[in-house]
Amino acid sequence: MSGGRLQDDRGLHYGDGLFETIRFSGACAPLWDWHMQRLLLGCARLGLPAPDPAVVLRRARRLAGTHPQSVIKLILSAGSGPRGYARPLPLRPRMLAFASPFVESVPRLLHLRWCQMRLALQPALAGIKHLNRLEQVLARAEWSDTSFDEGLMLDTGEHVIAATAANLFVRKDGRWLTPPVDACGIAGVGRRWLINAVSAIEAPLDVAAVETAQACVLTNALHGPRQIGQLARRSWDVDRQVQSLQDRWRTLFSDGHPR
């Protein structure tokens, strides 16, 4: 890992790096392996030396011990370097890790809005959690009304992709669908869990497809599946299948297996 000064860090200056946000229950992170697989994929995409997952896990567990339920944020930057876009050789990545207590969200139906900000298409960066999140930052800045829990974002081709901080699933004709993330968006760990749980398939979605769905769900690695109750002029009642999925998610973190 890198020496040097933090003020010279390429992650700070250029967004040259990756991050993972991981939920721990005690010293257990049930979805750790998937987080590491995505981090290593991101390293390969960005040409960054990959960290040793075992070393990262030991560090994360030490931090997780400060709270019964915690969130560990890992930031892997390209390390320090001189001014300019050219990377220094050899690269000496810097790993930063932070712990905060996990706060369970109150179970309720979510109120969403549509965002004006569009996600640009960039297959080379799609799926991974690189440090440049300005699209999500600007989308989230579109509202300050606390009655909204999240906003849904489209890409420049007018396909619905995700919320600012969660992936989207909809049920239509009894099947669960989720937008592909091969051109933009993040391949979320919570998304991967829910794809497996409901045998969801990837399919392009437009605004009409979302607003006419039988049920809509947001999911991320911290809170798992959460049902959308209102979006624009459409509203949904509590869905029993989603409630069952929420129960399975809670069990995952109450009976999580050490990793």
Count of helix runs: 7
Query: Which range best describes the helical content: under 10%, 10-25%, 25-40%, 40-55%, 55-70% or over 70%?
Result: 25-40%
> Please, how many domains?
2
| Largest beta-sheet characterization | 6 strands, mixed, barrel
Order of helices and strands: HEHHEEEHEEEEHEHEEEH
Order of strands, widest sheet: 4-5-6-7-10-11
Low confidence ranges: none
The H-level CATH homologous superfamily of the largest domain, spelled out, is D-amino Acid Aminotransferase, subunit A, domain 2
Q: Which structural class matches the secondary elements?
A: alpha+beta
CATH fold name of the largest domain, please?
D-amino Acid Aminotransferase, Chain A, domain 2
Can you walk me through this structure?
The chain has 259 residues and is an alpha+beta fold. The protein has 2 domains: 6-101, 2-Layer Sandwich (D-amino Acid Aminotransferase, Chain A, domain 1), CATH 3.30.470; 110-254, D-amino Acid Aminotransferase, Chain A, domain 2. 27% of the residues lie in helices and 29% in strands. It contains 7 helices and 12 strands. It has helices spanning 10-14, 32-46, 53-64, 134-140, 189-198, 207-211, 240-254; strands at residues 17-25, 69-77, 94-101, 110-119, 150-155, 160-163, 166-172, 175-178, 201-202, 215-220, 224-231, 234-235. A 6-stranded mixed beta barrel has the order 4-5-6-7-10-11. Helix 5 (189-198) links the parallel strand 8 (175-178) and strand 9 (201-202). The longest helix is centred in the first third of the chain and has 15 residues, at 32-46. It is globular, with a radius of gyration of 19 Å. The protein starts with 9 loop residues before the first helix and ends in a 5-residue tail after the last helix. The model has no long low-confidence stretch (mean pLDDT 95).
